[in-house]
Amino acid sequence: MFDNWGISGTLYGGLSRLWSVTVVAFGASLLTYGLIYLTPGDPAHTILAQQLRREPTAAEMAAFRADQGLDEPFVQQYLSWLVNVAHGDFGSSYYSSESVRELLALHLPNTAELAIAAIVVAVVIAIPLGILSAVHYDTWIDHTAQVGALLGVSIPNFWLGYLLILVFSLGLGLTPVSGSGTVGHLILPAITLGTAMAGIITRIVRTSVLDELGKDYVVVARSKGVRERLVVYKHALRNAFIPVVTIIGLQFGFVLNGAVVVEVVFQRPGLGTLLVDAVFARNYPVVQGVVLVTAVLFVLINQLVDLAYVAIDPQIERGVRS
Amino acid sequence: MGCPVVIDHWLARRPTIRSVRATIGSGLSRIHSVPLKVKLGGAIVAVLGVVAIVGPLVTPYDPAAQALRDRLAAPSLAHPLGTDELGRDVATRLVYGARISLGVAVLVTAIRLVVGTVVGLVAGFAGGIVDTAFMRLVDIQLAFPGLILALVVAGILGPGLTSIVLAISVVGWASYARVVRGSVLSVKHNAYVQSSKLYGTPRWRIAGRHLLPNVMQPVIVLATLDLGTVVISVASLSFLGVGAQPPTAEWGMMVNAGRDHLRSAWWLITVPGIAIMLTVIGFNLLGDGLRDLLDPDQQTLEQRRRT
User: Fold this and answer.
1) Label partner for A134 (CA 20 to 30 A): which of A202, A209, A231, B232?
2) Contact B284 A260 (CB under 8 A)
3) CB-based contact (8 Å) between B277 and chain A?
4) String of DSSP letters for A96-133
5) For B67-122, how does the pLDDT look when each residue is reduced to its tens digit (9 = 90+)?
6) Which of B40, B44, B168, B236 to mutate to test the interface with A (most CBs of A within 10 A)?
7) What is the DSSP string of B198-233?
8) CA A199, A205, A207: angle at the middle one, nearest 5?
């Protein structure tokens, strides 16, 4: 991707970005659609049995299939779904009259809020910690930071969530146990999700700063008597941040993964809880909607990160760095 | 493994006392400093392995045996880690859970490794359209949040251990393919590969004898680190309910069962959580240490910093 894009400038870059978003969205939707089609068990039976709380008759199942378009061949089902999606129509939930679009619009803001808060928590912890760790290389500060980072990546999100609830909600009564809406509701989920990410980002910041501090321009700056503080904070950091921006962007996928678990722990209504409920209820239109939206969001964010990359490091655009 | 190389090195350089000292010194510092992570991680993993294999043979309780009279009993001599909501011994379930967690993690990682390595070898070696097609597939897979896809796949296949093994394997082979392809590309134009091609050696044999050994080191490091990730993924999916099903003892499910008794029985979520964390720490330390040991780039960076 990078090699194409350095050479022929913005238009090509923009097109190739658009193309990769399309390919991923298409791949993800085809995969989920195909899987659902191949699943043993008849969705009509599962869903009607749950709705009616009795064994559905053959006529009822046939009516349901005709209604949902499930009796058409796979390719036709998939294509008509694609056409509808292109018109902004994701179908409607099997269980309620709500359209999938409404459901997504209702749940997406909560997940976005959580994702952004978590990234803020992660960055606020990780960047100072990573810099300190690199500047004080191989001292107790560095070692402590590294152990902290290891713990961050090794503690499962769902468990940390319950520990925090146990201490801060049930023990100290500082925050609500579950739900969403206020800042109080957001703090613990954001910390839960943010610390895991902080572990990864701390390591990258540390390695990246260490790398820069070993380079010639730093040696020159030091040898001409530039104060150490200036060397680190003015010269090295700007260059060290290039890989960090990428990693933060890539972590967005991680946020979405983690959000599913964290939302279930804190019972926040978001894309994650929506997806988990839909998976268990075999509410396929909702599953497809969430998967598609997540995939597109994820790829879009990655593309934006690429753009940010160019803004920080003009060399990439000029094709100096590949 | 390192010994003959060092000796060759000595002969070639006609060692002075200083260079001998330096060699011995750097050898010592390698043994002394780098493998601390490997030792620590290896020890944790080894203990877990022994617990998983031997543990179930020595526990006095049955992991599924309910004793409703003893439900939610706090840790005591009879039940060192307490009992759960059905009066089952938590320590016993923890030990049986180690079998599931480690077993599934090893199985999933093995599937990912084999699939990814084969794809990477074929793509890198064949080049052209095969390469493009496979790498586009890799891009798509890497461009998607894995756990979400795994959740959907496992949910659609129907909850159960088999489903999550399949689901987590399907969403995680791409990084192996990418690493292997990179290594293959970097060696496939070497003279020894080209000359064995000229000899008419069959392709699968070139791939197996000349390319595979070159890609094994990064793959082993990746797999070790991956084991930790897989342990968390398995536990997360089981926690969400699409993985192991009752009455199987599995760590993620144990945390899930404990969530209703947060206030009255803190040990129910604490104990399996610590088990998951320790396992992941073990694999991460081991993987990190192995990378320090095997990855020459990283090593020179660290060495440069040390001197």
Assistant:
1) B232
2) no
3) yes
4) SS-BHHHHHHHHHHHHHHHHHHHHHHHHHHHHHHHHHH
5) 777 777 777 777 777 777 777 888 888 899 899 999 999 999 999 999 999 999 99
6) B236
7) HTT--HHHHIIIIIHHHHHHHHHHHHHHHHHHHHHH
8) 105
For residue A39, which residues of chain B lie inside 8 Å, CB to CB?
156-158
Q: What is the token pair recorded at B137? A: 């597939």
Q: Which residue has the higher pLDDT, A312 or A205?
A: A205
Other CB atoms within 10 A of residue B161 CB:
20
Cβ neighbours for B67, distance < 8 A, ≥ 6 positions apart:
B83, B86, B87, B88
Contact, A288 vs A29, CB < 8 A? Answer: yes
**Segment holding A293, helix H or strand E:** helix A284-312
Residues near A131 by beta carbon (within 8 Å), at least 6 away in sequence: A205, A206, A209, A232, A237
B301 chain-A contacts, CB cut-off 8 A: 210-211, 214
pLDDT digits (tens, 9 = 90+) for A236-265: 887 888 778 777 877 777 788 889 999 999
Closest by alpha carbon to A270, among A186, A146, A163? Answer: A186
- Asked if the Cβ–Cβ distance from A28 to B273 is below 8 Å, we say no
Residue A284 and residue A94 in contact, taking contact as beta carbons nearer than 8 Å: yes
Interface confidence, given as ipTM, is 0.84
Q: How confident is the model at residue B2 (pLDDT cuts 50, 70, 90)?
A: very low
Could you tell me if B277 and A159 are in contact, meaning their C-beta atoms sit under 8 angstroms apart?
yes
Say yes or no to pLDDT of B231 above 50. yes
Separation of alpha carbons A37 and A47, rounded Å = 15
Q: Which CATH class is domain A100-321?
A: mainly alpha
Instruction: Give just the sign of the alpha carbon dihedral B209, B211, B216, B219.
Output: negative
